[in-house]
Amino acid sequence: MKVELVTSLKRQATKILADLHYTKEPVLITEHGKPSAYLIDVDDYEAMQNRLTILEGIARGERAIATDKVVSHNEAKDKMSKWLK
């Protein structure tokens, strides 16, 4: 992963962003030698957000199963049919 100082980002933002778009490699921005932020490509960020949404849905489903808060297939169809009219 590429690492840049925050001062480099201030001085060379256009070049750093161009490199980011070309390589698709995230850039770690540091301040005073410590990690401060990541720069990532917009498409990569949106894909990560979509994956996170899916994983959160899976986790909710697993919690529902673990706490026995589930409904049968027919009950689910009945509930959904009200929304699909």
Task: Determine the mean pLDDT.
Answer: 94
Distance between the termini: 51 Å
Major sheet: 3 strands, mixed
Into which percentage range does the β-strand content fall?
Answer: 15-25%
Total helical elements: 3
Please state the overall shape, judged from the principal axes of the Cα atoms: elongated
Q: Spell out the helices and strands N to C.
A: EHEEHH
Number of domains: 2
- Radius of gyration equals 22 Å
The overall strand count is 3
What portion of residues is helical?
55-70%
Low-confidence stretches: none
What is the SS-derived class?
alpha+beta
Strand order, main sheet: write it out.
1-2-3
Protein name: Antitoxin
Family: Belongs to the phD/YefM antitoxin family.
Function: Antitoxin component of a type II toxin-antitoxin (TA) system.
Organism: Alkalimonas collagenimarina
Question: How would you describe the overall organization of this protein?
Answer:
Belongs to the phD/YefM antitoxin family. This is Antitoxin. By secondary structure, the chain is of the alpha+beta class. The protein has 2 domains: 1-40, YefM-like domain (YefM-like fold, 3-Layer(aba) Sandwich); 41-85, no CATH class. Helices cover 64% and strands 18% of the residues. The protein has a 3-stranded mixed sheet with strand order 1-2-3, with helices on one face. The mean pLDDT is 94.
